[in-house]
Design a protein that fits this description.
- The protein has 227 residues and is an alpha+beta fold.
- The protein is built from four helices and five strands; from the N terminus they run αββββααβα.
- Helix 1 packs antiparallel against helix 2, helix 2 runs antiparallel to helix 3 and helix 3 packs antiparallel against helix 4.
Length: 227
């Protein structure tokens, strides 16, 4: 097997594993937090007999931009080392708001179930891509680089990464729409979060690699017929 191709394949797999590991790291914190809120709501309902309201609490992942432009540092805070004041610019913030009253419960419920469905879809992709990646690496390690099945596996990986990004984009849209109704940060305007663009780049790279492999397989087959 070509040594350079093996190195590139391993490096691509490491980049993917690092990207997924980062997502799992932050996703695990969100899952634990959501489970905690659900447990607290269940305990409260058992004690009081009142069903929890969908519109009483909200956690929002905000993407912020200073109202006066970038690098205007609208936030004042104190340096904990020397206790001197300093200015800051916050690009991302996670806020928890209790007693949210001015959003529509129906919209919140619909958003909850839709985003839950997309989250399950994202988990399916997270399970699919490592499996297909392992299969491709196993074929490469056995010198089966030009196996036509590798083309289908690479395509499934590329399309899965793009689908994962789109699903995340849709979830961000719903969260952004609700956040603009209930959250306002002094000195900042809320921005739509476009997610991790690296996934798009990685997805197209994998698809391009699949097409290159397809052409290579066709040339190899034509060469074999000519001989």
């Amino acid at each position: 097997m070509d040594r350079r191709l093996k190195i590139i394949t391993i490096a691509l797999s490491m980049v993917y594993v690092a990207s997924i590991g980062r997502f799992i790291y932050y996703g695990a914190a969100d899952f634990v937090y959501g489970a905690k809120l659900g447990l607290q709501a269940g305990i409260k309902m058992a004690e009081t007999g009142e069903a929890p309201s969908w519109a009483t609490i909200g956690t929002f992942f905000l993407s912020l931009k200073p109202e006066n432009g970038l690098r205007t540092f609208p936030t004042s805070m104190r340096n904990q080392l020397d206790r001197k004041p300093m200015n800051a610019e916050i690009e991302r913030m996670v806020v928890e708001i209790s007693e949210v009253k001015n959003r529509q419960p129906g919209e919140t419920i619909a958003t909850f179930f839709f985003t839950s469905f997309l989250s399950c879809f994202a988990l399916f992709i997270l399970a699919l891509v490592p499996l297909q990646t392992f299969r491709v690496l196993r074929s490469v390690s056995k010198d089966k680089i030009f196996d036509p099945t590798n083309i289908r596996k690479l395509r499934s990986i590329g399309y899965a990464l793009l689908a994962f990004y789109i699903a995340n984009l849709v979830v961000n849209f719903f969260h952004y729409r609700i956040a603009t109704q209930v959250v306002q940060v002094d000195g900042y305007s809320l921005q739509f979060d476009w997610g991790n663009i690296t996934l798009v780049l990685l997805g197209f790279v994998v698809l391009m690699f699949a097409e290159v492999l397809k052409v290579s397989v066709q040339l190899k087959e034509e060469q074999a017929l000519t001989v």
